[in-house]
Amino acid sequence: MDYASASTPSGKRVALVMGNSAYQYAVELPNPKNDAKLMSQTLRAAGFTVLDGENLDKTAMASLVDQFTEIAYDADVAVVYYAGHGLQVDGRNYLVPIDAQLEKAAQLQTRTIPADKVIGALPPDPAVSIIILDACRDNPLARSLAKVLPASRSASMGVGLAPVQANGQSTGSGGLLIAYATDPGAVAYDGKGINSPYTAALARHLTTPGLEIQSALTRVRADVSEATGGAQRPWHNASLSREVFIGGDAPAQTAEAAAEVKTSADAGASTDKTDVNWTVEQKLWEEASKRNTVAHYELYLQQYPNGNFATLAKLNLDQLKTATTEVAAVAPAGEASASASQVRTAVAVPDDVKLTVGTPETETALNLDKGARIDLQLRLGALGHVTGGADGALGAKSRSAIGAWQRQNGLVETTYLTLQQHMFLVAQTDPMMPQIRAQYEAQKKAAAALSKAQAPVRQKVVAQQRVKRQRQPAQDTLEGPVERRGGGMDPAGAAFAGGLLGGALGGIIGNR
């Protein structure tokens, strides 16, 4: 298959590199300035014209972005790299200059640089644009801002950075790729060395000659995951219309070497079979890493379960299953709880999910039986929303949890679900559900066992009350019957037995 390439050295290649370490109102970050230097060196060596700056205040940072906007306008490939503090509010990302003081809600707009401004600085199609954000570190400025934001906004203020949808940013023959140091909403590590694990891996792989950028980022992910024991997993979102080789094409094979390969193949030597197998495996892997889909990686692993790229394939599969969202096409009523493995899209909430507004009628159309309602409560609980227990009754707490989930995902907060929203929630939580369901079943068994263990206690209480009633003096009987009409224990006994059992069960179920 023939692909256009963005690897020609004659094309204009520009980069903006920024690294902020010396924060005036937060603890200094030791590595961003070092990371910026490393990336500037790496990109210059690859033939980029680099505009860079370190420890930038708001004025200097905005000025540098403006300069880059003018320089990059007619570029063939443009790269923006930022290391330092960043934060997200209402699903929008903000880069933080070193002089940012975030003690008032309005300062979010006046003291930071919106990531949208950086995206707006990128050249139009057919250019290829790449944004790399090593800005997901633990951020005390975000915590101070959250305290002064209105409740509706502070509640939607997440950890790390929010995912940006690359699709729709470009419609021509170029495209946009956005790379993050770690998963959306997660925190990246600054690193114990002079560079962060992410930037160190970028410097190793990003400009490798002949290595397509998405394959390079796959290697970066593998390196960072290994360096952090799986605690940090970089990811990227792309809508590229052509292959991009930041380091240029691989050195061409000489005519003599090509002739040797052909002669060996014609000879049919046994060693050639190994060479052919390796070539086939390599081609299959390159296609899988370029396409970056579950189906392609699974196909590679089916053919080469112990292949040279098996570890990377498994890591990428893990990325797609945990850092991407699957949204199935609209299904008939009653099928909303089907597996969300039908269609896979980017992490960002799709427009069709955002545009639908939940009502009692849209939720009724889901036909959720008790089991499906329990499943819904478990899924909300898996994301940290309190439902008051998985009992299948969508009461006030469950409604509040649905509203909180809608708000968190930028949806209209009605506390009622639509078909699209329910399927999005299913896709969002599928990777967590085996463990969640196992815990739920274990808790149910524990509650049943406790109830069974309490049965003799209840029987003993009933027997004691019966004996007590039989021993009551006649005058007590004349004053009023102890036994309630229709039989049974008196209120004190009922309170004792009910409190004993209810407290134990409530403790278990409440901890779900």
Write the layout of secondary structure elements.
Blueprint: E1 13-19, H1 32-45, E2 49-54, H2 58-72, E3 77-83, E4 86-89, E5 92-95, H3 107-110, E6 113-114, H4 115-120, E7 128-134, H5 140-148, H6 151-154, E8 175-180, H7 197-205, H8 213-227, E9 235-238, H9 255-267, H10 270-291, H11 294-303, H12 310-323, E10 325-326, E11 344-345, H13 351-355, H14 360-364, H15 370-382, H16 396-408, H17 419-429, H18 433-470, H19 474-479, H20 491-510
Helix pairs in contact: 1-7, 7-8, 8-12, 10-11, 11-12, 15-17, 18-20
- Secondary structure: number of strands: 11
Distance between the termini: 52 Å
Shape: elongated
Can you list the strand order of the major beta sheet?
2-1-3-7-8-9
Relative strand content: 5-15%
User: Structural class of the secondary structure composition?
Assistant: alpha/beta
Largest sheet: 6 strands, mixed
Number of helices: 20
The radius of gyration is 30 Å
Q: How much helix, percentage-wise, in residues? A: 40-55%
Mean pLDDT: 73
Taking pLDDT < 50 over at least 5 consecutive residues as the criterion, the unreliable ranges are 1-9, 148-160, 167-171, 253-276, 323-347, 477-489, 492-498, 500-512
